[in-house]
Design a protein that fits this description.
- The protein has 501 residues and is of the alpha+beta class.
- The protein has a five-stranded antiparallel sheet with strand order 2-1-5-4-3, sandwiched between helices. A five-stranded antiparallel sheet has the order 7-6-10-9-8, with helices on both faces.
- A hairpin with a 4-residue loop joins strand 14 and strand 15.
- Helix 10 packs parallel to helix 14, helix 11 crosses helix 13 and helix 13 packs antiparallel against helix 14.
- The mean pLDDT is 84.
Length: 501
């Protein structure tokens, strides 16, 4: 009986000992797993005391801040907090001591490189008086958010400057979303989201069906649209707008919405109308110049010719006066013709077609055969490429440049002119016209492209001073550019940058 009780007591003692050993083993395992989790977690963990000192930190915390463990353990974390955020940290600790948890606290700590690191912090106060902190580095996220805010601000500024905004139409609900700029263009309060019927009502009655059809075709067939139409705003103002739309499909290929842009083009339309009005006035002037000015000039020339037929009885002085009058009338005739040519460039419509510059230059050589032979000019023509343009106007360009190259040569030197092409890219090439003439000071190069400006008046070369202005005007209308290299006594080289046809 006694042995039985002893055995029972020993058995219970062993069971209790075994229980305690199991508890210790479990505690050790939990502590080891906790320490492993604490050390290897991608989140930043630290333990601090109520005296603001680091008690423990994990590897992620060390790596994020850039300090060593030895530099942090036992030191005050307050020195790392940005001055503007220290009060928030003090308030957070006070809240913890009052029994509250801290969540989503945003503060900045100073990294070892001197840069601020933004942290999102959650913390609790344990019964042992230690504060357990979990934090995440949100610096990159905040930088991205800042860039997004800056880009959004720039976009809104660009919308205001360009009067350009975006819109979206949900095809399931028929509801549209407008950017601030689109609302402003329509004189609508910002944030308004009209349905399709309301949006279409801003267009003039005669244009609504056209816009509605464009939306239908885009919605059903996926065909984008680009229209310029007038709207009547919420305040009753008429505006010209350009609206562009294209379809957006879901992952199954179904068109679910339309999106696009809308721009106020009222100012540009008004500018076009003003330009057209100006062109009409210029055409009227050209008509006056070609008829009302030339008619009295013809009479002057006719009567001077009659005087020439009776000039055998004139003295030398009278003959000199007559010769000057005829020369002045001839210059006036050339000037009127050049003015007409210059005005026609501005007012006429370009007929853009593929043009073989080599073929056009052959025609120019035929037209100028007499002057070439008279001056005994030597023309060397290399392979010339093609471009897209108005053949008649391009012939004017080549004729003016060749005429100048022949005209401005030294009296004791035969004119040698080289015409060839230089390839730039697959889309562009350069036409080069080079001569060995008298040249000029490059400082005055831009002057030669202005009407009535001449660089060689003192040398007595004939001309009206409009030829190079015509060249510049034609090339501008063709989207081409011209540059010149020259020096006194060393000839001149013109380079015209053209697009391939």
């Amino acid at each position: 009986m006694v042995d039985s009780r002893k055995f029972e007591r020993r058995s219970k003692s062993l069971q209790a000992l075994n229980y305690h050993l199991e508890q210790e083993l479990t505690a050790e395992t939990l502590a080891r797993e906790r320490d492993q989790f604490f050390s290897l977690s991608p989140d930043m963990f630290c333990i601090v005391d109520l005296n603001s000192h680091f008690f423990e930190i994990n590897n992620t915390f060390v790596e994020t801040l850039g300090y060593s463990r030895e530099e942090l353990i036992g030191t005050s974390y307050v020195r790392l907090i940005h001055p503007d955020d220290q009060q928030a940290a003090v308030d957070a600790v006070r809240s913890l001591t009052e029994g509250n948890a801290v969540s989503e606290l945003q503060i900045r700590l100073l990294g070892s490189d001197g840069k601020d690191i933004w942290l999102n912090i959650n913390a609790i106060l344990s019964v042992d008086g230690l504060i357990y902190v979990v934090a995440r580095d949100t610096t990159e996220q905040r930088q991205i958010e800042q860039r997004l805010r800056e880009n959004e601000a720039l976009l809104k500024m660009a919308e205001r400057v360009a009067m350009l905004g975006g819109w979206v139409l949900d095809l399931e609900t028929g509801q549209s979303t407008w950017s601030d700029a689109v609302c402003t263009i329509h004189d609508m309060p910002l944030g308004q989201a009209p349905d399709l019927e309301h949006a279409l009502s801003f267009y003039l009655p005669e244009d609504r069906e056209r816009v509605a059809n464009a939306v239908d075709v885009c919605s059903e067939k996926g065909m984008p649209f680009d229209e310029e139409l007038q709207i009547k705003t919420a305040k009753g103002r008429l505006r010209w707008v350009r609206t562009i739309g294209h379809p957006v499909k879901d992952k199954n290929g179904k068109i679910v919405r339309l999106q696009g842009a809308l721009q106020d083009i009222t100012a540009s339309r008004q500018a076009v109308e003003e330009l057209e009005r100006s062109n009409r006035e210029l055409q009227d002037f050209a008509f006056v110049a070609s008829h009302d000015l030339q008619e009295p000039l013809r009479k002057i020339q006719a009567f001077s010719d009659r005087l020439v037929s009776h000039s055998e009885d004139f003295g030398e002085k009278e003959k000199d006066y007559l010769q000057r009058m005829q020369s002045a009338a001839e210059r006036m005739q050339h000037l009127i013709e050049d003015l007409l040519s210059y005005s026609k460039i501005t007012t006429c419509t370009n007929h853009m077609v593929p043009c073989d510059i080599g073929t056009i230059f052959e025609i120019v050589l035929q037209d100028m055969e007499t002057s070439i032979d008279l001056e005994k000019a030597q023309i060397e023509v290399g392979e010339l490429l093609t471009t897209c343009g108005d053949a008649t106007q391009l012939r004017q360009v080549l004729q003016n440049l060749l005429s100048n190259a022949i005209k401005f040569h030294a009296e004791d030197q035969k004119s040698v002119i080289k015409v060839y092409s230089e390839e730039i890219t697959e889309k562009e090439w350069t036409l080069v016209i080079s001569d060995n003439g008298i040249g000029f000071d490059e400082r005055y190069a831009e002057k030669m492209f202005q009407p009535f400006q001449r660089l060689h008046q003192k040398y007595g070369y004939a001309g009206t001073g409009i030829g190079m202005a015509i060249v510049k005007k034609i090339l501008n209308r063709h989207g081409a550019s011209i540059s010149v290299n020259s020096a006194p006594g060393q000839g001149t080289t013109f380079r015209i940058r053209l697009k391939r046809s």
